[in-house]
Amino acid sequence: MVHFNKGIILQAVLFLGFLLTLGLVWFEIRAWRRGTNRLTPRQNKLRIASAALMAAVFAMMLAGRWLPQENLILALSYWLFCTGLAILALFISILLMREVGESYLEEKKSMLKELGHGNREDGHDA
């Protein structure tokens, strides 16, 4: 029977998260280059920045396992920097959610306005 310790399982999960994040970034960049997504250039930049930061956080979490623990200042600085990147990615994601929500609201208003004008042109009252 194979026994896995918690460190190996955590490392595998982090590695899979890292690969998944890189894959998502690749798909976003590909869609952005093709022009197939409906996001604004600012939303694309925020999404790619957030995903890139998360990939960096996953990579740092993987690499942190081999960080020498004897130097506490180095270890503390490393993990504080990693935490700072994660918090920055969170804030960028919140900005992105806000931007996408606002653009969907504007699009909804535009569609309702067009539907309202379309009904009047056909001779029907809204």
Number of helices: 3
Average pLDDT confidence is 82
Q: Specify the biggest β-sheet.
A: none
- First-last Cα distance: 70 Å
Helix content: over 70%
Number of extended strands = 0
Quaternary class: single chain
- Portion of residues in beta strands equals under 5%
Topology, please?
Blueprint: H1 6-34, H2 41-63, H3 72-121
Helix pairs in contact: 1-2, 2-3
What does this structure look like?
With 126 residues, the chain is an all-alpha fold. It has one domain (6-121). It has 3 helices and no strands. The protein has helices at residues 6-34, 41-63, 72-121. Helix 1 packs antiparallel against helix 2 and helix 2 packs antiparallel against helix 3 (72-121). It is elongated. The termini are far apart.
Structure characteristics:
mainly alpha, 3 helices, 126 residues
Brief sketch in words of this structure:
By secondary structure, the protein is an all-alpha fold.
